[in-house]
Design a protein that fits this description.
Elements (H helix, E strand, L loop, with lengths): L2 H7 L1 H4 L13 E2 L5 H15 L6 E10 L2 E9 L3 H18 L11 E5 L2 E5 L1 H7 L1
Parallel strand pairs: 1-2
Antiparallel strand pairs: 2-3, 4-5
The structure holds zinc ion (ZN).
């Protein structure tokens, strides 16, 4: 297991209010390059949750699709304002993911790669084709 994978797997323990439901069926379905992005997002969500003691997030699925991050979650016990803040944080991370190489974390861009859209840097794209 890579160092990044170990850090990702530790997130539910670090942020029990973000991962309040049962464990995700398939874990983190994306490359290690997004590790820091996901860590930052989870820390941000945890901070937002501090504003309302009754609010809980249940992360359902975290995966890559068409070169972008998809972060699916349920939210309970939150006000509309808190729900907006959480949505914005997730949207920002999703937008940022298109500019981060999914393999190595360096700046990248979304392009078609052997028929698939993926967010990669030039070096990783060269290796992948
Ligand atoms: Zn790369």
């Amino acid at each position: 297991m890579s160092e990044e994978r170990v850090r990702l797997e530790a997130l539910p323990t670090l942020y029990p209010r973000v991962f309040s439901g049962s464990p995700m069926s398939w874990g983190f379905e994306h490359g290690d390059g997004w590790c820091e992005l996901i860590e930052t997002l989870c820390a941000r969500l945890d901070t937002i949750l501090q504003e309302e003691p009754g609010a809980l997030i249940e992360v359902r699925q975290v995966k890559e699709k068409f070169g972008g991050l998809r972060f699916y979650y349920n939210l309970s016990g939150a006000s509309d304002a808190l729900a907006d803040n959480i949505r914005q944080a997730v949207d920002m991370a999703a937008q940022a993911s298109s500019h981060i190489c999914e393999r190595c974390g360096r700046p990248g861009s979304v392009e078609t790669n052997v028929g698939w859209l993926s967010a990669l840097c030039a070096a990783c794209r060269a290796k992948a084709t």
